[in-house]
Design goal:
Blueprint: E1 5-6, H1 7-10, H2 37-41, H3 72-76, H4 105-109, H5 139-143, H6 173-177, H7 207-211, H8 240-244, H9 274-278, H10 307-311, H11 341-345, H12 375-379, H13 409-413, E2 432-437, E3 443-447, H14 450-456
Antiparallel strand pairs: 1-3, 2-3
């Protein structure tokens, strides 16, 4: 007897699979599910080896020299004496005399009101609690268990640090990895650019001129304009605002504007108005011009002594005494020593600039005067261009009176085949009996004997319910 088969194995068209969802919570699933869409579409090839990588390996490089344990901070930094900051004595607080007026404009003008608390509309939450204890095992604790894996030993090689004997004895990473090399230009495999000459004379015919056949255009279809036909139904000018907002009943507002009385006749008015009666013209005399007096200088000399100059008394005042303390610096006539720790330890190296690597010029520079002839003029030779011969057949339609043979190879050689229906299309595959469903969601069916399957088989319908 054959073992039961899964729905994934019974399918012959490759479009039916089991849901692959677990149906039980606390099931370890001893038989793993190895059927996936990736395994079905991409089979494994054992004879083909993967391509070898040409990328260099990232290996750890051990330092080759020794490193000095003195840093720039240790050699240049000098400790200084720390002086405590003077402490400022806080003054004693003395309260002000009198009473403080605590009244405000808000307390004077605001009248308190008695406000009742707002009644809650939301119903009270009812909590249903039970006194029993929940004794369950969570899915994470049961499915994800810790593995008993021993700790892996490290493959790191211990390097004992040995400081260098000389200053800057270690080489840098750039000096170790990048070794200066000579410039070797690559060989060019580009074919030489040589023009191919042709002996045929130039013909002015092109593919467009030979292949294009002018056709007569048909007249453009002009669509007639439809006449406007007004509607027989009256226009409904009732808007949403007029329909919904009809207003409130009330009296109309009375206008305070006086009525505009019309003048009965166009005769000129000869009476006296109020403006003419009150504001009459006055007789105004012209202002008299004032003559300026001539300037007469005072006799005698001018006295330049002022009151402050005559009454000011000079006092003998001693200069102000400076509050700044006298500095205890000693002035010496010795020359200033401009040497520092940085100048002594970091002296300038006698280095020369590296010369720029330049490629030697293959073409020597001209020495004489410029001749009015370029390389193109001197080396260019004009050639007669011959057009390429077209091997395209002439597009000519040969009329024939024989009937058209519409027989094709597909019609003569095609043989219709019987359409087979996948057994997994039915809810219960024909010729199989349902056995069980495992924890991963696979449905297993057992194949029946041919006699039993033919007796129990039903008529195959044209429309089949597809199981997703």
């Amino acid at each position: 007897m054959k073992p039961p088969q899964c729905l994934c194995e019974i399918c012959t068209c490759g479009r039916h699979r089991c849901p692959h969802k677990p149906t039980r919570i606390y099931d370890n699933g001893q038989q793993p599910c190895l059927t996936t869409e990736y395994v079905e579409k991409y089979p494994q090839y054992s004879n083909i080896s993967p391509p070898q990588s040409l990328k260099p390996k990232q290996e750890y490089q051990v330092h080759r020299g020794k490193m000095e344990g003195i840093t720039t901070f240790k050699s240049d930094y000098l400790p200084y004496d720390i002086v405590m900051r003077p402490f400022r004595v806080q003054e004693e607080y003395r309260p002000k005399l009198g009473m403080i007026e605590l009244g405000t404009t808000y307390q004077k003008d605001y009248n308190a009101h008695n406000i009742q608390p707002v009644a809650l509309v939301r119903p009270l939450e009812r909590k249903h609690t039970t006194g029993g204890k929940l004794d369950t095992i969570p899915t994470y604790r049961d499915d994800y268990r810790s593995w008993e894996v021993p700790r892996r030993e490290t493959n790191k090689v211990e390097h004992i640090y040995q400081p260098p004997t000389a200053k800057f004895g270690n080489s840098t990473t750039f000096q170790d990895d990048f070794v200066p090399r000579e410039l070797n230009p690559r060989q060019s495999f580009k074919p030489p650019y040589v023009a191919k000459l042709s002996d045929m004379p130039f013909d002015g015919t092109t593919s467009h001129r030979t292949s294009y056949v002018p056709h007569q255009l048909e007249p453009k279809f002009v669509r007639s304009k439809e006449e406007y036909k007004p509607s027989n139904q009256p226009f409904e000018d009732l808007t949403t605002h007029r329909n919904d907002f009809k207003g409130l009943p009330g009296q109309l507002a009375i206008s305070c504007k006086p009525e505009n009385a019309t003048v009965g006749s166009n005769v000129h008015f000869n009476g006296v108005t109020e403006f003419q009666d009150r504001f009459q013209p006055w007789l105004v005399s012209l202002p008299e011009g004032r003559k300026t007096k001539e300037y007469v200088p005072p006799p005698g000399n001018m006295d330049f002594n002022s009151t402050s100059h005559l009454d000011y008394t000079i006092h003998e005042i001693s200069p102000a005494v400076p509050i700044r303390p006298v500095s205890n610096q000693r002035r010496t006539n010795a020359p200033f020593q401009g040497m520092s720790t940085t100048k002594e330890d970091f002296k300038a190296w006698e280095n020369c600039l590296q010369e720029i690597t330049k490629k030697e010029q293959e073409i020597p520079k001209p020495t004489g005067k410029f001749d009015d002839s370029t390389t193109f003029k001197s080396h260019y030779t004009p050639h007669q261009i011959m057009p390429a011969q077209s091997f395209k057949p002439v597009h000519a339609i040969v009329p024939s009176s024989a009937p058209f043979q519409d027989e094709t190879m597909y019609r003569t050689e095609y043989t219709a085949k019987k359409q087979e229906i996948c057994p997994a299309n039915y809810p219960s595959p024909l010729g199989y009996a349902y056995v069980n469903t495992d924890s991963h969601g696979h449905k297993f069916f057992r194949q029946l004997t041919p006699e039993f399957s033919e007796s129990n088989s039903n008529h195959i319908p044209k429309e089949v319910d597809v199981v997703s």
